Each structure stands twice: as structure tokens, then as C-alpha cells.
Amino acid sequence: MCGVRHVAEAVEELVAEKAAGAADLRDMVKKLKAPRAVWLMVPAAVVDKSISSLVPLLEAGDTIIDGGNSYYIDDIRRAKELSSKGFTTSTSAQAAACGDWSEATA
Predict the structure, then answer these.
(1) Parent domain of 38
(2) pLDDT at residue 69 greater than cutoff 60
(3) What is the pLDDT of residue 96?
(4) Domain total for the chain?
(5) Which pLDDT belongs to residue 85?
(6) Looking at the structure, do residues 95 and 48 belong to the same domain, yes or no?
(7) Are residues 78 and 101 in the same domain?
(8) Model pTM?
């Protein structure tokens, strides 16, 4: 497991819990073995921006999990876009509690 946060102290807390810390997304992707699973815990408003930053760093076969409260229609759109590039997508149980997410996973 590898964690990235924008606050250095938060990364240090992750490292203290036995996770690998990373300075940025590129560093995080390098530290994860393929096929990677990247769990996003960001506000719904920045999920697309976060995915756009990640996609160039990842490889086909990697998985992107939306751990926030994205609108399910957005998840379905993202799943279609990312699956065409060879990625697997999923939503978290937190988001899934809001409705039927079976269509949102690729």
C-alpha cells in the first residue's frame, strides 16, 4: 500500500502505519506493482481531474476505484471511457450504498 497526500504530515502518518509514502502521483505509481489498484478518495468535483492526472501514469490492466460520492451517471461514463483504454473501474461500498451500482463497474 502506498499513500499520497498534499500535506507532508499526513504522508508521515501513513508511513508510521506501515504504508509506503509518496511525494506525488508519479512516485506513488512507481511504488505500486502492476497490475495496480488506485483508490481515489477525493471530492466528487475533482474525480475527473484526478483520473486525468493518473491515466498517463498507469497501464492497461490497472484498476481505478472511486472512493467518493460520485453521481452514478458519472461513474457509468467514466467506466465506459476508461474500459476503452484497458482500465478496470469500480466504485466503493461507500458510494454504492446510495443505489444500484452494478452498471457503474466495468
Answers:
(1) 33-106
(2) yes
(3) 44
(4) 2
(5) 95
(6) yes
(7) yes
(8) 0.74
